[in-house]
Amino acid sequence: MTTPDTSFSSRRSGRQTRANLDAEHKAMMSSVAIHAASNISPYRWPVENLEKATDSSARTFDEEQDLWMVQEQVGAFLSITSFKRKYPDMIRRRIDGEEAKWLLENGMVTEYLIGLGLWAIKAVDVHELMQFDYPEKYEDFLLSLAEKEKRNYDDKTRQYRKNLMAFKRKM
C-alpha cells in the first residue's frame, strides 16, 4: 500500500493557478478565432423590426443609441483579458436567452461563446473607446464595417434584380 503524497506541490496540482487560468483563457480566445474585426457585428435590441435588427447602419443619433455589440468579441479583438475590469464605467447588460438565441441564429455568435455568458455594450461607446484608445485597430474595424455594408448592399441589389427579372417574366 502506498501512502498518499501530501506535499505542497501535490496539493497544488489539483487547483488552477492564475497563470494556468490566463493561459487557458488565451488559448480559448484564439481557438474560437474571434480576434477578427469582421466578427464584431453591431445589432439592434430589442428586435422590433427583424429587417432593421441586423442593419447596423444608423442614420440618426437616436438610431445609433440603439446599436449594441457583444463585449466578449470586442474584448478579444482588442486583446483585453478582462474588459469589465478595464472599463468598469461602460454601460453593459447581460444578454438573456432570447437575445443569445437570436444572435446565434443570425450567425453573430457561436454556441461556445453563449456558454461562456455574454454581455452587450453600446456600440457608440465601443466606437469612442477604439477611436481614442486603439486608433490602429479602429481603422481595421471601420474597414470591416464598410466591407459588411458593401456585401449587404450587393446582396440586396442581387435580390432586387432577381425580383425584377421574375416580375418582367410575368408580364
Description:
Helices cover 60% and strands 8% of the residues. It contains ten helices and four strands. Strands 1-2-4-3 form a four-stranded antiparallel beta sheet. With 171 residues, the protein is of the alpha+beta class.
Mean pLDDT across every amino acid position:
81
Distance between the termini: 91 Å
Report the count of strand segments: 4
**What percent of residues are in strands?**
5-15%
Radius of gyration: 22 Å
Query: Can you give the helix content as a percent range?
Result: 55-70%
Largest sheet: 4 strands, antiparallel
Number of helices: 10
Describe the global form. Answer: elongated
Order of helices and strands: HHEHHEHHEHHEHH
Structural class: alpha+beta
Strand order of the largest sheet: 1-2-4-3
Q: Which stretches are low in confidence, meaning pLDDT under 50 for 5 or more residues running?
A: 4-13, 30-34
Offer a few descriptive terms.
alpha+beta, four-stranded antiparallel β-sheet, 171 residues, 4 strands, 10 helices, elongated
